[in-house]
């Protein structure tokens, strides 16, 4: 599929934001909810905390992996266009540039 470079750049930005959001879920365990239940076990111990999954871990991992792959693919296409495309500029723009 051929797309305009501007569209590819926008898609890369969108995918990067999605990957960053999903990364927080994976790293910080945000897919768990802490619920407290008041249970009297002995004197002085009344609260029991438990983690309950809000999301399935495999769902988060699968979605993260898919978006990360799409990001790598679009980034590779953009980089290829970057290295194979040339632009026309006024000769004075590159006067002081020294290629290494």
Helix-strand layout with pairing:
Blueprint: H1 5-28, E1 32-42, E2 45-53, H2 57-84
Antiparallel strand pairs: 1-2
Helix pairs in contact: 1-2
Keywords:
elongated, alpha+beta, 100 residues, single chain, 2 strands
In short:
With 100 residues, this protein is an alpha+beta fold. It contains 2 helices and 2 strands; from the N terminus they run H-E-E-H.
The coarse overall form would be elongated
Major sheet: arrangement of strands: 1-2
Number of domains: 1
Structural class: alpha+beta
Number of strands: 2
Structural overview:
Helices cover 52% and strands 20% of the residues. α1 packs antiparallel against α2 (57-84). A two-stranded antiparallel sheet has the order 1-2. A hairpin with a 2-residue loop joins β1 (32-42) and β2 (45-53). The radius of gyration is 25 Å and the shape is elongated. The chain has one domain. It is of the alpha+beta class and 100 residues long. It has two helices and two strands, in the order αββα.
């Amino acid at each position: 599929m051929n797309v305009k470079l501007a569209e590819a750049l926008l898609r890369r930005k969108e995918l990067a934001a999605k990957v960053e959001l999903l990364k927080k879920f994976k790293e910080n365990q945000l897919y768990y909810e802490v619920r407290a239940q008041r249970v009297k076990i002995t004197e002085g111990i009344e609260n029991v905390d438990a983690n309950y999954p809000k999301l399935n871990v495999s769902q988060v991992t699968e979605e993260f992996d898919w978006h990360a792959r799409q990001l790598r693919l679009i980034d590779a296409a953009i980089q290829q266009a970057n290295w194979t495309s040339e632009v026309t500029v006024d000769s004075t723009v590159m006067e002081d540039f020294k290629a290494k």
